[in-house]
Every structure is written in structure tokens, then in C-alpha cells.
Design brief:
The chain is an all-alpha fold and 512 residues long. Among the domains are: 258 residues, no CATH class; 79 residues, no CATH class. Helices cover 66% and strands 3% of the residues. The protein is built from 22 helices and two strands. It has a two-stranded antiparallel sheet. The protein is globular and about 70 Å long.
Length: 512
């Protein structure tokens, strides 16, 4: 116990050490001439190309130049930085104006298990809108748990587990399905040029996974997390206002509802091509499919999702405050925005070091080399049937520890995994499902997940009563029960589908 406490390092220290270790390993890799090749498919032509990957030595003069010259750009371009600030502004306004309390005040009457289930379900579904769940749903989940008299840390943990462990699941076809289907289709054509893979090919499978993961996540939260965290001092959000004021909730709700309706109507006008001036301008005109236009990488809507959702909180919150009397001037409005940012200094410092580690690790190509080695292992074994399914599942699980981008990994793995599956009478769509299942499990425990820093920051924010900050390893221990149980659920689903032969999507089955 004393040894554990002695080596319970602060998150900042952990990421400094990880960065230093990565630099040293890159130097060793350079001396040993680490390199590997993998097969890539040209999206434009469908032809295969051989890609050579070598380790980039940062333990050198040029490496030192890279580290120093890119420290500021790495931090400035760190995705969670801007997203968190934007989302926190909206959360601060709905909290301090009283809109949050008014909307969710009656939630205390609902069964606590149902609330937990809905939080995890919504967290899984948040992948429809990219990474907004990390900076929007996690803090809102904390506030909801606090409102119903529970420890808000449990709300943060449950939401984070749903977002990460359920990344490959959903009730709807998302941009992930479209991105994966592109490479699955091209890989399938290496064996059968007439084969076609659709974006909805895993739909039935991911719907089932979504519901089961939500149920299992609820069980873990209620039976494991909540009892171990203990009680938390509950406060009334409204009492945090600078002065006592008479609140007109009905008038505030009318103002908030009307402003939200106007804003949503405006956004809908911008994403629906009606042929009218300004309509559809947030879509990507370079795509032919509407879902690609709306949710593709180059979609203006997709890129602006964090800002749009922040405004969806901020605008109704502001108008609720005006209507109810909780916000009477610009000072009140500014105070509401700043309220959620008061503890952000520690988050920013941690983000700086996390940004450096992720950038340095990516620059070295170590993660790519590890994933290429895993792909080569799959190809060398020539496993078939369920043995191939197990191998791909665990390779995806391990590979995700070093490259968190699902699409990037599938781009490298699909040209090997899909043909091997087809030669073993397994459909490309099922192999895609196996990959996305394994890929989801370790999202919440890898230090290379950029938004892990938000999780640590929120846990420490609401863990202040414990008087001891949550270390990196303690944060991992909060998540590993979900990772283990979610992994078991994913694996059972895959085996059941394979043996029974249920359709995984419309007219798509595990076996050919």
C-alpha cells in the first residue's frame, strides 16, 4: 500500500515521463532500423500500394528542433482545448441562469437506474456528432447526478465509459459506418470485383450492442462505481447566483423554448438544400451522398458541431435568464460564462503536456509500426473461422492502444483482414464488425486518447471533497471494470452472431 502511494504520480508527471520515454524509444528504434511495410488501397483507383514506415528519431538534433519548434502549435491545435472551452461556456450559462435546474428539477422523481441507463445510452449515441460527448455529456452527467443527490464523479465515469466503450455501437448509421465501409468495399473488391459493401451493413449488430452495453454499463455503475465513491454534498444550482432574485420560471421557459426553436430552425435551414439563398451552406458540396455531405470529414456542419451544440445551450440559457430575471445585464451574462471556466487553469496545464506527448508519439511512427506488426501477424497465421475472428478482435483491441483513429487502423488492416475472411467464407461486413468491436474496448484506457485529459480534469473537479487529486492510474482503475465487461459483451455478441447466423445488417450475414 505504501509503495502504491509512493508511485502514485500526478497526471502531468505521467505524461512528461511518457513523452521522454517515447523520445528514447524512437532513438533506440532508429539505431535498430525499425521499419515495416503494409498494403494500402488507393481510394481513387482501387489499386493496392505498398507503404514503407520507418521510425522517426526524435532523440537527435532534428528531433530536438521538432519538439521545441512545435510545442506551441501542438498545444494550439490540440482538439480538446477549443472544444472544451466552447462547450463549457454553454454549460456555464444554463447552469447559472437556472435553466438546467428548471428543466431537470423533476428528474429526482425518476428511478436512479433509469437515469444512469439514459446517460450511458446517450453517451454511446453521441458518436453521431464526433467527440462532443466528452465535453458536453460528461459535465452534464455530473450535474444531473449531483441534482439527484448522487456523487457527480459517478456521472462522469458512466458517461466516459459509454462514449469510449460504445464507440463502435449506435442506433443509427453514422459517419464511422460510412468511413469504414469505404475501405471494406475496396478490400472486398480485391477478391471479388463485383462485391459491394453498404454503410448500413452492421446496423442490426450495432443496435443490439448499443442496448446491451447500456444495460451492462448501468449495472456496473450501480453495483460497482456508486457504492465505492460514497456520498457527495448536494447543492442547489440556483443558490449560486450573486443575489437572491424572484424567478419567473414560466416566462423564462417560454423565452428559452422560443429561442431554441428559432436557432434549431436556422441550423436546419443551413443543412437542408432547399435551393433557397443560404440553404444547405453547411454541407460539403464535393460529396454526392447527403450523409457524407452532412457528416463527412470536410462537412462544415461536422466541423462546427462543438460550436453549434454550445450555442444550443448558451442561447436558450441566456434567454431563460432574461425571461426569468436571473440574468439582467451583461455582467450577469459574463459571470455565467466564466463560472464554468474558473477551474480550467489546471486543465489547460495538463492539456499542454498531453498535447506534447500525443504529437511526439505520432511523429515517431511507433504506433503505426506496432499496428503494421499486428497486421503482419494476422497475415502470417492464416487462421480461419472463429480462430480468425478471435485474432482480429484482440489485434484491434491491442492496436487501439497505440493508434486511436478507427479509420486509420482499418485503412491498414482491411486489405489483409477482409480478403482472409472472404477466403474463410466470412463476409467483409462481419470482419468489419469484429474490428470495430475490438477497437472500442480500449478507448477509455489508452493515454493516446486526447479526451482522456477531460475525463481526468472533470473527475478531479468533482472529487475535491476527497482532498486528494485523482492520479492517472486511479482514473484508469475507474474505467477498467467497464472495459473488461464491455469486451465480454462485444465478444459474446460476435460469437453468437457467427454461430447462429443472424443478419448483422439488411441482407448481410456473417458467412457468405
Amino acid at each position: 500500500m505504501k509503495l502504491r502511494k509512493r508511485f502514485a504520480l500526478e497526471p502531468v508527471t505521467v505524461f512528461i515521463l511518457l513523452t521522454a520515454l517515447t523520445i528514447i524509444i524512437s532513438g533506440i528504434g532508429h539505431l535498430l532500423n525499425w521499419q515495416a511495410t503494409y498494403t494500402s488501397i488507393n481510394i481513387a483507383t482501387g489499386a493496392t500500394e505498398t507503404v514503407l514506415v520507418t521510425v522517426e528519431n526524435l532523440f537527435s538534433v532534428s528531433g530536438l528542433r521538432y519538439i521545441i519548434s512545435n510545442a506551441v502549435p501542438n498545444f494550439a491545435s490540440f482538439a480538446p482545448l477549443a472544444t472544451l472551452i466552447i462547450a463549457f461556456m454553454g454549460i456555464g450559462v444554463i447552469e447559472k441562469s437556472g435553466l438546467f435546474h428548471t428543466l431537470f428539477g423533476n428528474i429526482k422523481e425518476a428511478p436512479v437506474k433509469l437515469i444512469t441507463f439514459i446517460i450511458i445510452l446517450l453517451s454511446i449515441l453521441s458518436s453521431l456528432f464526433g467527440e462532443i460527448g466528452f465535453v458536453l455529456l460528461m459535465p452534464l452527467s455530473a450535474l444531473i447526478f449531483m441534482l439527484i443527490g448522487r456523487n457527480p464523479v459517478a456521472g462522469v465515469i458512466a458517461s466516459f465509459a459509454g462514449i469510449t466503450g460504445g464507440a463502435g455501437a449506435n442506433l443509427f448509421v453514422s459517419s464511422l459506418d460510412m468511413n469504414l465501409a469505404v475501405f471494406t468495399d475496396l478490400a472486398a473488391k480485391l477478391i471479388d470485383p463485383a462485391y459491394t459493401v453498404n454503410a448500413n451493413s452492421n446496423w442490426f449488430f450495432i443496435i443490439t450492442a448499443t442496448l446491451l452495453l447500456s444495460i451492462v454499463g448501468t449495472f456496473i455503475t450501480e453495483k460497482w462505481i456508486v457504492p465505492r465513491l460514497g456520498e457527495y454534498k448536494v447543492y442547489d444550482i440556483i443558490e449560486d447566483l450573486n443575489e437572491k432574485r424572484e424567478i419567473n420560471e414560466k416566462r423564462g421557459l417560454f423565452f428559452a423554448g422560443l429561442s431554441a426553436l428559432v436557432f434549431l430552425s436556422f441550423i436546419l435551414y443551413l443543412i437542408i438544400p432547399l435551393g433557397l439563398p443560404g440553404s444547405g451552406i453547411l454541407l460539403n458540396p464535393g460529396e454526392t451522398n447527403y450523409l457524407d455531405q452532412l457528416l463527412g470529414f470536410n462537412s462544415y456542419f461536422n466541423q462546427g458541431i462543438p460550436f453549434i451544440f454550445a450555442l444550443l445551450l448558451l442561447i436558450p440559457g441566456l434567454f431563460y435568464g432574461i425571461g426569468s430575471g436571473t440574468i439582467r445585464n451583461d455582467k450577469d451574462f459574463s459571470g455565467a460564462i466564466n463560472s464554468a471556466m474558473k477551474d480550467i487553469s489546471k486543465i489547460l496545464i495538463l492539456m499542454f503536456f498531453v498535447a506534447q506527448f500525443i504529437a511526439v508519439f505520432k511523429e515517431t511512427n511507433i504506433g503505426t509500426l506496432i499496428n503494421v506488426a499486428l497486421v503482419n501477424l494476422i497475415e502470417a497465421t492464416q487462421f480461419q473461422g472463429l480462430a480468425l475472428v478471435f485474432l482480429v478482435f484482440f489485434v484491434a483491441l491491442i492496436g487501439n492502444l497505440f493508434i486511436t483513429s478507427t479509420t486509420t487502423k482499418w485503412m491498414m488492416m482491411a486489405p489483409v483482414i477482409v480478403p482472409l475472411g472472404m477466403m474463410s467464407n466470412i463476409t467483409p461486413e462481419y470482419m468489419q464488425a469484429v474490428f470495430r468491436a475490438g477497437d472500442s474496448i480500449t478507448n477509455g484506457v489508452t493515454p493516446l486518447l486526447a479526451y482522456f485529459v477531460v475525463f481526468i480534469a472533470l473527475v478531479n473537479k468533482y472529487n475535491s471533497l476527497a482532498k486528494k487529486p485523482v492520479t492517472y492510474m486511479k482514473a484508469i482503475r475507474m474505467i477498467y471494470p467497464y472495459a473488461i465487461c464491455f469486451g465480454i459483451v462485444w465478444l459474446i455478441l460476435l460469437i453468437a452472431w457467427f454461430i447462429i447466423g443472424l443478419p448483422i445488417g439488411p441482407n448481410v450475414y456473417p458467412l457468405m
